[in-house]
Specification:
By secondary structure, this protein is an alpha/beta fold. It is 41% helix and 16% strand. It contains 11 helices and 10 strands. It is globular, with a radius of gyration of 17 Å.
Length: 288
């Protein structure tokens, strides 16, 4: 692993990207995508999610995908898990790291996790305990870290408080999501100023969406503020469920271009990622 990279990118296209594409992708094509990404220099790939198949049919094949990918020992293969049962399923296929999912907005948490924010934290407690005991790295997504599609602007102080409650469960990265992609650079700076006193900057991840075309500028400001970890989706996979037809996750390629502009190392081969992303875009009928 290139441990002296300046910027660490987690590729979330296979999970967050494909979860939000209406086209179902076969196990074989998911495996082919992940295998291509595995040798591009990416340090971490979020492979899938162990959630209820009736709720997220796009990722119902998580175990099969994990079983069939050709693993690179230098890559961390992670999965989103909603609860202890999800963790058990993920551990059965040898997951290296897990992601938990909550939101800084009660309405969004209710709609996406069927729980209050407090209940999601209660749900996570045994999951974090078990994961840490097994040496599995944990990250927690805080979605709606800037704004909620139902409640509007979200206060940075609320995100800070939630991050604190999450970190009290055990060691973890805190992944701040601009779920609807409305942030401007000043929002990112304000958010980081609120959260960085309670989460070390090296454990903060920015998860940006390019809904309104501002994700790269937000990433740049994040880097200026000291952020070293980002999520990206090759080919910008994954639309925005709240803005049909709009771009989804910031593309990994855009993050890599930004790194190149700023003379920062990521260890990732942009061409390899772009080729994998373009191939998957053609399969799901998305043209960037
Ligand atoms: Mg996303």
């Amino acid at each position: 692993m290139n441990s002296d990279r300046d910027i660490t990118i987690t590729e979330v296209g296979p999970r967050d990207g494909l979860q939000n594409e209406s086209t179902l992708v076969s196990v074989a094509d998911k495996v082919a995508l992940i295998d291509r990404l595995s040798w591009s220099g990416l340090p971490e790939i979020e492979v899938s999610a162990f959630v209820r198949p009736d709720v997220v049919p796009q990722l119902a094949d998580a175990a099969e995908v994990f079983a069939q990918i050709r693993r690179n020992d230098d890559v961390i293969y992670s999965a989103l898990v909603p609860n202890l049962r999800g963790l058990e399923r993920a551990m059965a296929v040898g997951v290296d790291a897990i992601s938990l999912f909550t939101a800084a907005s009660e309405t969004f948490a209710a709609r996406n996790t069927n729980a209050t924010i407090g209940e999601t934290i209660d749900r996570f407690r045994p999951v974090v305990e078990a994961a840490v005991a097994e040496g599995i790295t944990v990250r927690a997504y805080i979605s709606c870290a800037v704004a909620c599609p139902f409640e509007g602007a979200v206060a940075a102080s609320a995100v800070k408080e939630l991050a604190q409650r999450l970190c009290a469960l055990g060691p973890m990265q805190i992944d701040l999501g601009d779920t609807i992609g409305v942030a401007v650079p000043d929002d990112i700076e304000r958010l980081l100023a609120a959260v960085s006193p309670v989460v070390p900057m090296d454990d903060i991840v920015l998860h940006l969406h390019d809904t309104s075309g501002g994700a790269a500028a937000c990433a740049r400001r994040g880097i200026e503020c000291g952020v070293t970890r980002f999520d990206g989706a090759c080919g910008g996979l994954g639309g925005c469920p709240f803005a049909p037809g709009a771009p989804g996750n910031i593309s990994t390629e855009a993050l890599l271009s930004l790194c190149a502009d700023l003379n920062l190392t990521s260890g990732v081969d942009r061409t390899a990622v772009a080729e994998a992303g373009a191939w998957m875009q053609s399969l799901v009928g998305r043209a960037e």
